[in-house]
Amino acid sequence: MALTIAVDGPAASGKGTISKALAAHFAFAHLDTGLLYRAVGAQLLQGADPLEAARSLRAEDIDADALRNSAVAQAASKVAAIPEVRQALLDFQRAFARRAGGAVLDGRDIGTVICPEAEVKLYVTASDEVRAERRYLELSAKGQDVTPEGVLEDLQARDKRDSERATAPLKAAEDAILLDTSELSIDDAVARCVAAVDAVRNAG
Length: 204
Ligand SMILES: Nc1ncnc2c1ncn2[C@@H]1O[C@H](COP(=O)(O)OP(=O)(O)OP(=O)(O)O)[C@@H](O)[C@H]1O
Ligand SMILES: Nc1ccn([C@@H]2O[C@H](COP(=O)(O)O)[C@@H](O)[C@H]2O)c(=O)n1
Fold this sequence. Notes:
Layout: E1 4-8, H1 15-26, E2 29-32, H2 34-45, H3 50-55, H4 64-67, H5 70-79, H6 83-97, E3 103-107, H7 110-114, E4 120-125, H8 128-141, H9 148-164, E5 177-180, H10 186-203
Parallel strand pairs: 1-3, 1-4, 2-3, 4-5
Helix pairs in contact: 1-10, 2-5, 5-9, 8-9
């Protein structure tokens, strides 16, 4: 049974890790929608007009590794507050969600705006300190010059901007299943999400 699975949550909560694992488990396609905003944010940093960048974005041109740093993350959350930028990225995300064979999309507004009809909605959180520690370990392992304090500040600034913006703010859909991963291993978090999806598939 092909489903749309919407996974939302704040920065570094583990939603991308869970989404990738769900897509692999159920053989669904996966879209990390944050990469779309990061790609537009990266172009802003190079002096481009963000709306032009969003309108001309080609998903196949996105180089995920080059976009995973704090400067691009901050720029992404700034362009993400521009309603016209969000609008320019909407059709691509909705078309992806409807693809045959099932899809997992992760982001901030998937369950509320992009796919309010998704059969499964997950909202993944973890404490600020746990998220910052995980992101610090990830970025420093890649050789990036980061400090634990700087990473924590970066996450908190982004979460504030993302949850306070007027258009499509970060929030859980009313019918989302909430999962706090602060004290869960990746395997345990994924197992809980697989069980939640299985429950919907078995009921359908
Ligand atoms: N349950 C967990 N236990 C330990 N580490 C985890 C767990 N979940 C995710 N991680 C690690 O935390 C980091 C952030 O996870 P991930 O990239 O999945 O978060 P995200 O919510 O998709 O972040 P972003 O919104 O910034 O893209 C990664 O290094 C990942 O391996
Ligand atoms: N559906 C989404 C996804 C992302 N954003 C914005 O992009 C920033 C980067 O996202 P990551 O998931 O890669 O951390 C994020 O801080 C949001 O501002 C969004 O608005 N909607």
